[in-house]
Amino acid sequence: MKTLRQRLVPYGLLAPGLIWLILFFVVPMYFMGELSLKTGSLESGYQLTWATENYTDAISNYSTQFGRAFYYAGVATILSLLIGYPLAYAIAFKGGRWKNLMLFAVIAPFFTTYLIRTIAWKTILDDASPVVSVLKTLHLVAPDGRVLATSGAVIAGLTYNFLPFMVLPLYASLERLDQRFIEASKDLYASATQTFIRVTLPLTMPGIVAGVLLCFIPASGDYVNSTFLGGTNQAMIGNVIQSKYLVVNDYPEAAALSFTLMAIILVALLLYIKFAGTEALMGEEEEAT
Amino acid sequence: MKLLLLAALALVASMALVACGGGGGISEGTNNDNVTTAEGGDPAGNLTISNWPLYIDGKTIDNFDKETGATTKYTEDVNDNNEFFGKVQPLLSQGESGGRDIVVVTDWMAEKMYKLGFVQNLDKKKIATVEKNLIPSLQSPTFDPERNYSVPWQSGMTGLVVRKDLAPDVTSINDLFDPKYKGKVTMLSEMRDTVPLVMAADGIDPKEATTQQWLDAIDKLKENVDNGQIRRFTGNDFVQDLAKGDVVAAIGWSGDAVQAQADNEDITYVQPEQGCSIWSDNMMIPVGAPNAEAAYEFMNYVYEPEVQAKITEYVNYVSPVSGVKEILQKSDPSIADNELIFPSSEFTKNCFAQVSPPGNEADVKEVEQAFQDVVTG
Predict the structure, then answer these.
(1) Which of A244, B31, B335, B345 is at a distance of 20 to 30 A from B267, taking alpha carbons?
(2) Residue B37 pairs with which residues in a beta bridge?
(3) Using one digit for the tens of pLDDT, what is the confidence trace for B75-85?
(4) First-to-last C-alpha distance (Å) of chain B
(5) Which residue of A has its CA nearest to B117?
């Protein structure tokens, strides 16, 4: 009797998460999958016709917006990494007693809603703003040019909004880095650069991988930044899905687009993890054993 | 392995559950063959209204409740006609209104909902104040010539909103395509606001326009998107871009122009040479509305000129109620004399009632999709 109970305990522990996942992920996914193969209209109802053309249409008609979404998200992720790594490094190693305050500063913007933060960038980047005039003086923006309603503004917004998702996992992995490895590296006459590239960077790979995933996945599906900071011809695939669902009320096509987006992200992730990830993600565990 | 089995079982069970339960999210369409007249309920009971944001002053609802004993739940959950339709369609097609007694949508959506059988006829005997005070110009719109099911909430014009200090010579929609304003103009992301004005500017009568002419106008927009002429497609936020001077001229709504002008007097509404588009948002009683009596009571209440004057003072759109101008003449002459709030027939002589693309559902969708492809290009 006791053994049976013992055997049931893990299932009991899993149950809340499992039920949650089934109700709010698996079931909606099933309906969305079914919807994506239907034809019809909101007014006359949808019939399941196994309309795979929803998928081919999604890809052929909106490849530009797909490409743009991954391009913007990719650039924003790389920028976040370039900004976030030194930042996390500084907080972890040079922060001293200010460490917690600095970490708080990274998260503080999250106390304001996402929308407000994004709309605030409209003022930061408006045509007459000091930021833009500095960029014009530096010849980074043409004298009659603008920043708002360009790709640059959308990427800047994405970078800003997803930066904390990069900094936090990086910080966590840097913080846990065993200082003795770095000392050992120096004892073996490695230069600071060599130590960084051959010791610090590989040991913080799990943080980088996690940060990249947390940035890239939500950024590629985002539509808020493009709506407010972008202009025409800057729509990301999220904007197309939003307009298909809420403006045109073409649910099957919207569902097909969502699935295609998920599939592309999934494939990209698998490749990425195969290439850069597994070892790094598992690295910690191997180390522990 | 066992875990996998368990998960699979749970999945099958939950699907079966959903399939027989609330699976009817999107169901067969209905029609208005047997449209009913709204009745029943208690004028002093609960009343639920769905309206657009910032579309009423702060006191009217409280006063209404005090005078009638009703308990009104006023929600601002209509942000966009299509979006709202998508939200309520599954309920309405089952004959349910989600507790709503009054919904407020724009003319073309009002017509669409009526044709689908989602809206009830009004018992005209019960809205005597509305009948008495509705201004003549709104008494017989083409979509509801006898106002059998719709009562205007507020009305307005779509035209040009410009910074007169930065773009003083903009008088026609075609001036928005002038290269000297490249990247400094915006248009509305509502197709029925933007496209008919673009057609009218090229001498096409929007009421008579064919699907092809709609598509041609959309092509013209596409060109001007691709060459960078049009900066963005906007909702009400065109006002902020104008206030900052990032945008010098826009297609926009008259009411927003009045409100923006209060903060920045360089922002002005300009009646396009070829005319403006006139629209209304309409109160309607949806099918399944629990308290039609209170809904009638409310319609009558806001058609009292004294009550309406307060709303007009706040929202600055064109009021559908006669007698309001006279009241405001005494209390707030600047509003009473504003052509955008009380337009003269001279001011709107070239204007047309807002139009939808012609043809059947598929034709309309083709045009709608073409326009969306420009907006999300």
Answers:
(1) B345
(2) B121
(3) 999 988 988 99
(4) 48
(5) A43
Cβ–Cβ gap A232/B14 under 8 Å: no
Does B39 have pLDDT greater than 50?
yes
The whole-angstrom separation of Cα B246 and Cα B228 is 14
Task: Name the residue with tokens 């902020």.
Answer: B240
Query: What length does chain B have?
Result: 377
Tokens 């598929």 identify what position? B362
Q: Give the amino acid at B167.
A: A
| pTM (two decimals) | 0.85
CB within 8 Å: B11 and A250: no
Among A42, A232, A249, A253, most B C-beta atoms within 10 A, so best to mutate, is: A232
Provide the token pair at B153.
Answer: 């909430």
> Would the CA dihedral through A19, A23, A25, A27 be positive or negative?
positive
Tokens read off for A41: 């209209």
CA dihedral A77, A79, A82, A84 (to 10 degrees): -70
Written as one string, the DSSP assignment of A99-130 is: HHHHHHHHHGGGGS-HHHHHHHHHHHTSTTSH
Q: Which residues of B touch A253 (CB under 8 A)?
A: none
Question: Nearest chain B Cα to A66, which residue?
Answer: B377
Give me the residue from A22, A126, A244 closest to B11, CB to CB: A22
Q: Which residues of B touch A (CB under 8 A)?
A: 3, 6-7, 10-11, 14-15, 18, 25-29, 80, 82-83, 85-86, 89, 116, 183, 225-226, 228, 230-233, 240, 244-246, 361, 365, 368-369, 372-377
Percent helix, strand, coil in chain A, to 5, is 80, 5, 20
Note which residues in 113-142 of chain A have CB less than 8 A from chain B. Answer: 122-123, 126-128
CB A106 within 8 A of CB A170: no
What pLDDT score was predicted for residue B337? 93
pLDDT for B167-199, tens place per residue? Answer: 999 999 999 999 999 999 999 999 999 999 999
Predicted local confidence at residue A275, as pLDDT: 79
* ipTM entry: 0.83
Task: Compute, in degrees rounded to 10, the torsion defined by CA atoms B243, B245, B249, B250.
Answer: -50
In 3D space, the residue among A263, A282, A109, A154 whose CA is nearest the CA of residue A210 turns out to be A282
The CA distance from B96 to B87, in Å, is 12
Contacts of A248 in chain B (CB under 8 A): 82, 365, 368-369, 372
**Residue A22 to chain B, least CA–CA distance (Å):** 7
How far apart are the CA of B80 and the nearest CA of chain A, in angstroms? 8
